[in-house]
Amino acid sequence: MYNKNMNKIAEALKSKKIRPTMTRLAVAEIFFESFDHPSAEDLLLKIQKKFSYISRATVYNTLELLAKKGLAKKRAIKSGRFIYDPVISPHHHFVDKISGKIYDIPWDKAKLPEKISIPGFETEDYYLVIIGKKLKEEK
To answer: Are residues 18 and 80 in the same domain?
Structure first.
């Protein structure tokens, strides 16, 4: 199971004071290769194809830990379900209402204020979720 990529993942976990157990490394390996914005359930299905012994609780707990320690972003995007994003730099999302696919949109492609203030609320983070249809690319 160990390879160059796993060593890199182990170092990333250690840098955030996360003990790199074999199950956490397995979950992290699949997660960091998943740029399709998986929910915990989506990721569980992928993981169990390769590592059938990994439980639902391990997947949920590892994803929550990655998000808490800043190695992933947890976002409510699709129908009240949370998705996890391995891209932690600021960016927005476009949700194709036909396919359900989520696309990353560079932060500078949407003009938003530097800070958002809402009376009666403390804003910690913000990003834009755009819903629409992806246009067919002309050849």
So the answer is: yes
